[in-house]
Design a protein that fits this description.
about 300 residues, alpha/beta, Rossmann fold, 7-stranded mixed beta sheet, 14 helices, disordered N terminus, disordered C terminus
């Protein structure tokens, strides 16, 4: 009997001293979806100079950038449908940024302009209808895997200056109106990031290819992001860097960061850090299980002691 009591006491002590400790705070995960605007196409170092990297670096977020050059809304819809790794990243994201719709427009720009010259908007209306349909499915699939993370959807800017600016601008306005109308019909589905307004009248924000944002343009979009992320009702990153973070030395980051500040960011296309909610839940569950086990052993130990006394 004494041997059993000693063994049970040892197990009880072992459990009490080996309950899992609370996990350290993890940096918040920012997930970026969409096209070449978000991927940083044309930048010398897109992994550190694109607007998402600049904003994530400033905020201390972990960045997963899944934007793909040339993606249309249908492509993003398919990616969300069939890509298992993206589904896992979606489930862990605390902030989701979307840039989509530009290629839906550009692929048919010549036809739309030709038709518009004759007062025909059939191609444009078809593009807008498909964009709205794809947008609805994109949002549905995001919410299947992550019902709570805030979503920021960017408006599309007009990159053209000169004779094309007015006719193209009218078409892009209709595209952005799809986003606004959907939001009116589905309040809270996402929040608009007004890139179109920020770029208006700033040709220096457009790269030499006359389509994509320049480095200055990415810095401007990062400023919009930071203004929103610093606002109310948004996730706040845990203070201090983690071992997985690396220092960014981008000159563009310096232009939006406070003087003498340290900017930190991890950019990943394949791996993600666990969600803080998930990380916190795991040790909590183990702790609960450990405490339950300790309680059971304590009861058994008490019963054995009482039985021994009765003998």
């Amino acid at each position: 009997m004494k041997r059993w009591l000693a063994l049970l006491s040892g197990l009880l002590i072992a459990i009490s001293f080996h309950l899992p400790a609370a996990a350290e705070d993890q940096p918040l995960l920012m997930l970026v979806l969409g096209d070449s605007i978000a991927s940083g196409y044309g930048l010398e170092h897109p992994e550190t100079q694109c607007y998402a990297a600049l904003a994530a670096s400033q905020q201390g977020y972990t960045l997963v950038n899944r934007a793909v050059n040339g993606y249309m809304s249908q492509d993003l819809r398919s990616l969300l449908t069939f890509n298992d790794s993206l589904k896992e990243q979606l489930a862990q994201a605390q902030i989701i940024i979307i840039s989509i719709g530009g290629n839906d427009f550009l692929r048919q720009a010549d036809r739309m302009l030709e038709q518009a010259a004759h007062g025909n908007t059939h191609v444009l209306q078809e593009i807008l209808r498909e964009l709205e349909e794809n947008l609805e499915d994109i949002l549905y699939r995001i919410r299947m895997y992550n019902p709570q993370a805030p979503i920021l959807l960017q408006t599309l800017y007009n990159p053209f200056y000169g004779p094309l600016r007015e006719p193209v601008g009218g078409m892009i306005s209709q595209l952005n109106q799809v986003y606004r109308d959907y939001l009116l019909e589905n309040p809270g589905a996402y929040e608009l990031l007004e890139v179109a307004e920020a770029f208006d009248g700033h040709p220096e924000y457009i790269a030499a290819d006359h389509i994509h944002p320049s480095e200055a343009g990415h810095t401007a979009i990062a400023g919009l992001l930071l203004a929103r992320l610093d606002g109310e009702n948004w996730p706040v990153a845990a203070p201090g860097p983690t071992q997985s973070q690396t220092t960014s030395t981008s000159s563009s980051t310096a232009s939006i960061a406070p003087e003498n500040s340290t900017t930190l960011c991890t950019t990943s296309f394949l791996t993600v850090s666990p969600s803080p909610a998930v990380s916190d839940a795991i040790p909590g569950a183990w702790a609960a299980a450990g405490m339950a086990g300790a309680g059971i052993l304590a009861i058994i130990l008490t019963v054995l002691v009482l039985r021994r006394r009765r003998k």
